[in-house]
Amino acid sequence: MKVACVQFCPEFKNVEANRKKLLDFLRTTDADLICFPELSFTGYFFLSRNEIEPFAFEFQSEIVKEFQYIATDLNRIVIFGFPEKFKGKIFNSAAILLPDSDLSKVYRKTHLFYKERFVFDFGDTGFFVVYDKQRDFKLGVMICYDWRFPEASRTLALMGADLIVCPSNLVTNVWHISMPSRALENKVYFMVTNRIGTETNGGESLLFNGKSGIWDYNGKLLSLASETEEDIIIAEIFPSETRDKSFNEFNNIFTDRRPELYKL
Ligand code: ACM
Fold this sequence. Notes:
The chain is an alpha/beta fold. It has helices spanning 15-28, 49-52, 62-73, 150-158, 175-186; strands at residues 2-7, 33-35, 77-86, 89-97, 105-108, 129-132, 137-141, 163-167, 189-193, 196-201, 204-209, 213-215, 221-224, 231-236. Acetamide (ACM) is lined by residues 38, 113, 144-145, 169-171.
């Protein structure tokens, strides 16, 4: 199956412009799975709950329904980040839309980065895997700063993920060291859709440094996006190849685990 990262620069606080841009990308990108960055509809650098509130929307909203309709119509899996309003809370969430809408779910970011704690509630969904029967494919999702916690990828891999997708708004460069390791140590495909551009708020600027990437289950880079430009990267993956976790006749990275000796 073909998977795609769509890297772009969301317009800060312009949901309508970003919605149109995502729809364009979605209709013109030929892939089975398309992942957009974290907070694709709004941009990132909000400083308070009051500031983001007018731009947040529910998972059960017309905006998400429109994308669900297209995911079903084009038979694509679609992942995008958005500020999710739910029962008086606001989460930094990712919509995971499968062609069969009954399987679609929302993931709420577990680990909040930097000033996000003044904007969002801590995610309450935990990690989970969705199964696309048609492609015999299991998908796990985390969001950006979740990458700093190897427990996140390990949990998704133990749940059976073939591919871990990480919609992101990354402001450092160190993550390129980690992502291939998470792929290798869990024997899963891994992809990060980052964004580009700069946002300034409250006298502080954040630079988002692109370089979205797709890695195979040995940690080999399959495709890499530009550091500064809008870019779409695509790779072919073979989900069932991730499932045998042995790498010689005696060793298997899952059954060799000794959880009784670990402190997590
Ligand atoms: C991040 O979690 N947006 C770095």
